[in-house]
Amino acid sequence: MTSRIAPTADVDESAVIGDGSSIWHLAQIRENAVLGENCIVGRGAYVGTGVRMGKNCKIQNNALVYEPASLEDGVFIGPAVVLTNDYFPRAVNPDGSLKSGHDWEPVGVTMKEGCSLGARSVCVAPVTIGRWATVAAGAVVTKDVPDFALVAGVPARRIKWVGKAGVPLLDVGNGEWKCPNTGETYIETDGRLRPAGEDMEEN
């Protein structure tokens, strides 16, 4: 199995593209970026220097994934999403000189297994998006998102719990939640959710 790279894509020679991955029209993959197997990078998307992606990730059209972002397996990034990387963005230093790469310290967004970012959402680094969490379209994430949380708004706040299928869970009482699609059950403890049978310490 080999990767597919559109002739119009800009992929640096030092980037590592996993088997089965597809890089589409006008996408840019910067120096030392690493993409796992079976990833998809859509039209006009940007993957910054040294970004790390696991396998089976999807980055949709015109999304901007700035370094040093880190994506675990199965992450979804919707169209026109932005992952920022600067606490205090400025084009120039206080003396008016143009900033270079040495004049600031980048901070990244960490995306855990299976999580998803809806279209045009923004993650203001440094934040972590938990396992299988979902960020609604247009949301602005300014703090860490718990595993299995659905967050929405500006700034983003948790409004529901979701399971691995991405569907809102049903409250069945006594801190238990159930996925209407898969039947899987989850346990809520102290504002955190985990699949039934999984120890909280494993999160």
From TrEMBL:
What keywords appear on the UniProt entry? Transferase
- Which Pfam families does UniProt cross-reference here? Hexapep, Hexapep_2
Note the superkingdom of the native organism.
Bacteria
Q: Does the keyword 4Fe-4S apply?
A: no
GO molecular function list: transferase activity
Instruction: Cite the InterPro entries for this sequence.
Output: Hexapep (IPR001451), Trans_hexapeptide_repeat (IPR050179), Trimer_LpxA-like_sf (IPR011004)
Decide whether keyword Oxidoreductase is in the record. no
Protein name, as recorded: N-acetyltransferase
